[in-house]
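not sure who needs this but someone in the group chat was asking about IclR family transcriptional regulator from Aeromicrobium piscarium so here u go. i didnt clean anything up, its just raw.
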Amino acid sequence: MLEKSLRILQAFRAGDQKLRLNDLVERTGMPKSTVHRLARLLIEHQLIAVDGDGYELGIGLFELSGLVPINRGLRETALPFLQDLFLSTQETVHLGVRDGLDVVYVEKIHGHSDLGLPSRIGGRMPLTCTGVGKALLAFSNEQVRQSVLARPLRRITPKSNTDLVALGRELAEIRATGFAFEREEATLGRACVAAPVLVRGEAVAAISVSVPVTQYRVPPLAAAVKTAALGLARRLRPPMEAERLAPASARTLPHRVDTSRRAHAFG
């Protein structure tokens, strides 16, 4: 019964406002009588709710999501740095973590031009076609990187990179520079700059800012993102280590980002 109930909850997808009973039957592949009976049980526990002639996710799920450790810890610690990044750019800011071969967005601050972006808090995207995902992948262990490079890459838009060799070179460059770049690989008309949040050399998260391609100015965006990522990394480190590494970390922020090759590649 638990598995069948989960199938009902997982039938809801990004963009769904509500689903009719027939929609749930079609997406779960279960008999209508079973779906109806389990839906009533989920309603009792506020995991879904009835809205007119359809079902929607319930407030009980929202309350439970706030208890997830990553929300209480990383997300709350990161929020001031994400807010500073938003204030300096007025554009959409993301915080993501790696889960398997996907990036899961744990926080998002909507910018003034946030139209058509598929990202949402709790949503996931492939590591290989987002700036946040690439930053996480580049600083993942060798086993994770090889697992990604051993299979066909998913194409989200016509501009998504599906060249494994090119991706391998890009990951090496991200490890060397500390920046990840993406242009229309996840959403047409949008580009982003991302940086990993490194604690003891491990990317515990990544931060990005997403802008319309017409406003894609790498140096100022990269400096702002790097400042946020470094600030969060220092806050997440143990106090003694953060104090010891803070001056060195501050010096890693580049005064100027060399974008000549990227400018040629991105147009």
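also Residues 69-266 form a domain with the Beta-Lactamase fold (CATH 3.30.450.40). if thats useful
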